[in-house]
């Protein structure tokens, strides 16, 4: 009985200790402006970082940045992150280079296991974002060149979307062609949030390379079908969205 009670107290102390760990919540505005689309759109998003556990980036598609006034951290009652149908998630365990997220081809969704690699080049350029000192870094990634400003002031590492590998927290990042931009709008911390868990179904994950092959097959299948009808190439499924998905054939 003594050993059982001791074990129970030990487990309880671990749980209570973890519950007091700080969770960082960084709010962003995510802007996309594809050339094939006549309008751009901006969605609110949030990055949840538990330095000793996991990181979760949530994009609230279908909402506008103004809606963050009522719920600045997309954090419902009880400090539990809720999965909603229009939300997109990017999940990464602490210290793991593997990123898990949901993506789609036409109307079919896939859970993708990706290992995006960024070869960052640090520069001497700097600026302040939300009052934090930020250093500039650049990288080429899957068809685009990005410039990012990150801060070491908070003592944590993290980034929205697929970005990874800088010695600090990215607060502003954009593609130099103007298609993609993520800007931090606020930073908060909480003590009693539940441990971050992967909200995605991982029973049938595919790799990034498998996803690209599926996309490419669908792209050329649609293109051949449209050309066969004498209407030319279809613009509804571009070779390049945020990333290059279809390589040119020789």
Write structural notes for this entry.
This is GLPGLI family protein. Keywords: Signal. With 250 residues, the protein is an alpha+beta fold. It has helices at residues 2-19, 208-228; strands spanning 23-32, 41-49, 54-60, 87-93, 99-105, 108-114, 121-129, 132-141, 144-151, 169-175, 180-190, 206-207. Strands 7-8-9-10-11-1-2-3-4-5-6-12 form a 12-stranded mixed sheet, with helices on one face. Helices cover 16% and strands 38% of the residues. It is globular. β4 and β5 (99-105) form a beta hairpin. Mean pLDDT is 83; it is low at 1-19 and 69-73.
Number of helical elements = 2
Q: Which fold does the CATH topology of one domain refer to?
A: outer membrane lipoprotein receptor (LolB), chain A
Structure class = alpha+beta
- Sketch the topology as an H/E string, one letter per element: HEEEEEEEEEEEEH
Shape-level CATH architecture of one domain:
Clam
Shape: globular
What average pLDDT do the residues reach? 83
- Spatial gap, N to C terminus: 74 Å
Number of strands: 12
CATH class of one domain: Mainly Beta
Question: Segments where pLDDT lies below 50 for 5+ residues?
Answer: 1-19, 69-73
Q: Could you give the order of strands across the largest sheet?
A: 7-8-9-10-11-1-2-3-4-5-6-12
Rounded radius of gyration (Å): 21 Å
Q: How much helical structure, as a percent, in the residues?
A: 10-25%
Major sheet details: 12 strands, mixed
Task: Please report which band the strand proportion falls in: under 5%, 5-15%, 15-25%, 25-35%, 35-45% or over 45%.
Answer: 35-45%
């Amino acid at each position: 009985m003594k050993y059982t009670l001791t074990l129970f107290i030990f487990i309880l102390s671990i749980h209570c200790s973890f519950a007091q760990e700080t969770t960082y919540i960084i709010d962003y505005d995510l802007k996309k402006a594809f050339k094939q689309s006549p309008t751009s759109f901006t969605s609110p998003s949030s990055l949840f970082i538990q330095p000793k556990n996991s990181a979760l980036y949530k994009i609230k598609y279908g909402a506008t940045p103004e809606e963050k006034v009522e719920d600045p951290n997309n954090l419902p009652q009880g400090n539990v992150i809720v999965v909603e149908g229009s939300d997109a998630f990017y999940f990464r365990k602490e210290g793991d280079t593997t990123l898990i997220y949901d993506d789609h081809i036409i109307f079919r969704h896939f859970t993708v296991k990706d290992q995006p690699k960024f070869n960052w080049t640090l520069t001497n350029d700097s600026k302040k974002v939300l009052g934090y000192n930020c250093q500039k870094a650049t990288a080429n990634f899957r068809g685009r060149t990005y410039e990012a400003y990150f801060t070491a002031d908070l003592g944590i590492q993290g980034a929205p979307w697929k970005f990874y590998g800088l010695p600090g927290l990215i607060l502003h990042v954009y593609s130099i062609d103007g298609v993609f931009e993520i800007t931090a709008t606020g930073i908060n911390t909480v003590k009693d949030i539940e441990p971050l868990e992967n909200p995605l179904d991982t029973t049938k994950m595919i790799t990034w390379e498998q996803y690209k092959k599926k996309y490419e097959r669908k792209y050329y299948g649609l293109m051949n079908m449209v050309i066969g009808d004498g209407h030319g190439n279809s613009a509804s499924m571009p070779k390049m969205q945020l990333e290059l998905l279809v390589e040119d054939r020789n």
